[in-house]
Amino acid sequence: MGEYVQNMKWASRVHNLIPTLQQLERTLRGGEARVNPRTSPARASIFARRSRVKRTVGYHLEMMIDLATTLRRHLGLADPVAVEFQRGDLKAANEFDRERIEYRGLEGDLIPAFLFTPRNRKPLGGVVVFHQHNGEFHLGKSEVAGDAGDVYQAFGPALARRGLVVLAPDAITFEDRR
């Protein structure tokens, strides 16, 4: 029973905040004139919240701008290095290009892959996608590309159509790495 009462008190507090939050939202969207904190305590409270929101948004924007560096630092990863690769066949589709590339792995072995790049739009980011194992060693990057295997595994083109650069390499012992 005590937990129910606590939840009801919390719900009541949240419910009482709704008009204040709606006022804050209107203020942040510019639906009102600039808030003067001297006019009333309620408006001063909204002004203070708005300042906190701006500082928080600024912090998050700064984190997003330098997200790669932040992630590398927190995960203890080394800085990226340039990787040499050879370009192969280029196949153009409606909304993306698919290019066969080859690059050297850490042990010097040659890794064939498909590189999907969106066409007529700026890439939103990049991902590395790996094919399923399923004991089908004759399949690899071609399954991710939709050329062979399960049609539900062809998510390389789907991601490229949505604006992502996709690298789909063959895992060791699969397709061209057998």
Q: Level of helix content?
A: 40-55%
The radius of gyration computed from the alpha-carbon positions, rounded to a whole number of angstroms, is: 26 Å
Structural class estimated from helices and strands: alpha+beta
The end-to-end distance, rounded to whole angstroms, is 64 Å
Sum up the overall morphology in one term. elongated
Strand content: 15-25%
Please outline the major beta sheet. 5 strands, mixed
What is the H/E string? HHHEEEEHHE
User: Please, how many helices?
Assistant: 5
Low-confidence parts lasting 5 or more residues at pLDDT below 50?
none
| Mean pLDDT, all residues | 79
| Strand tally | 5
Strand arrangement within the widest β-sheet reads 1-2-3-5-4
